[in-house]
Amino acid sequence: MKAIDRVVLVISSIIIVILGAAVLASVPGAGRDSSFSMAFYDTLRENKALTVAASVLVVLVVLYQVSLALRTDDERRPIVATTALGQVQISMAAVESIAKRVARSVNGVRDVDARAEGDASGEGVSIQLRLEVSADSSIPDVVEGIERELAATISATCGLPLKKVHTLVKSVGPESSKPSKVS
Amino acid sequence: MELESNRAELGTVKISNEVVAVIAGLAASEVEGVVSLAGGIAEGWSELLGKKNLARGVKVEVGEKQAAVDLNVVIKYGSVIPEVCSKVQENVKRAIEVMTGLEVVEVNVHVTSVFFEQKEPTGEQRVK
Asked: CB contact, 8 Å: B103 with chain A?
């Protein structure tokens, strides 16, 4: 997440809290009158410049949030191959989905998150994996299996060599297939 | 922009960009390994509103005699992507040239995602 996204998120959170508090305080209840809401709206009417500025800020924040929601996240450079008829581009999201599928197919992998990056030379791809492995698995065997399968699949499907695989084993989950305790 | 052929004796023939895009989209979809063409958000909304868009995921530039095409495709998992894309380029070029008479100078294919046909393997079927 970019710094500007964080700032806008914080501002929008503050706006929501303030508006929420104002609405709650405006609700008349037992033993409470609506004097707060009247005072609140009077203040808004009296400080027109401030009200307009706050309204503009709210609208801008909302527009930014909507554009953020609609924006495609993948701004990374795709793999590009030039052919006689033009270019063939493979997005990093596509490579990542293949990598996740391949890694999940290896015995001992419970969950995986992948991030792919094109090589600076454009002649290969590097993949970062974050794994959750099952408790009964040998991590070196699992990682070796993933690297072997990934290298074969990426090269076969994308037509590019797999340059590097960085693997982080972030957690260990329950065993994948426990023997039955009852006979 | 529209392509317009001048035929003095019989009148003119106009082929709109959308027609070229539809031809390209259909030609690309015919290739084995291509699951669909991936459109943007605007195209997705228009389809939700009931407007079927055969040119979805296709962008064309049409000149007087030449055309260039950009396609966003979704490829089936297990396909050899460069091979499928090469077939898409050839098929799209041939279809447009045969149907419109335009010379296709460039067909750029962008693989946006991969489609997984089957469910992920269960624990018992996993590779060892």
From this structure: no
Phi, psi of B37 (to 5 degrees): -105, 140
Non-local (6+) Cβ contacts of A23 within 8 A are none
With a threshold of 0.90, does the pTM exceed it? no
DSSP string, B13-49: EEEEHHHHHHHHHHHHHHSTTEEEE---HHHHHHHHT
User: Looking at the complex, does the CB of residue B112 fall below 8 Å from at least one CB of chain A?
Assistant: yes
Q: What is the DSSP string of chain A?
A: --HHHHHHHHHHHHHHHHHHHHHHHHS--TT--SHHHHHHHHHHHH-HHHHHHHHHHHHHHHHHHHHHHHS-S--SPPEEEEETTEEEEE-HHHHHHHHHHHHHTBTTEEEEEEEEEE-TTSS-EEEEEEEEEETTS-HHHHHHHHHHHHHHHHHHHHSS-EEEEEEEEEEEES-SSPPPS--
CA angle in degrees (0–180, nearest 5) for B18-B23-B24: 95
Minimum distance, in Å, between the CA of residue B125 and any CA atom of chain A = 8
Over residues B60-110, the pLDDT tens digits come to 999 888 999 999 999 999 899 999 999 999 999 999 999 999 999 999 999
Contacts of A105 in chain B (CB under 8 A): 120-121, 126-127
Three-class SS state of B99: helix
Question: Bridge-partner residues for A81, per DSSP?
Answer: A88
CB A96 within 8 A of CB A134: no
Please give the Cα distance from A10 to A6 (Å, whole number).
6
| Residue of A94, A154, A72, A83 lying closest to B109 (CA atoms) | A83
In this structure, the dihedral spanned by the alpha carbons of residues B30, B31, B35 and B37, taken in order and rounded to 10 degrees, is: -70
pLDDT tens, residue by residue, A137-161:
899 999 999 999 999 999 999 888 8
Question: What contacts B48, CB < 8 A, 6 or more positions away?
Answer: none
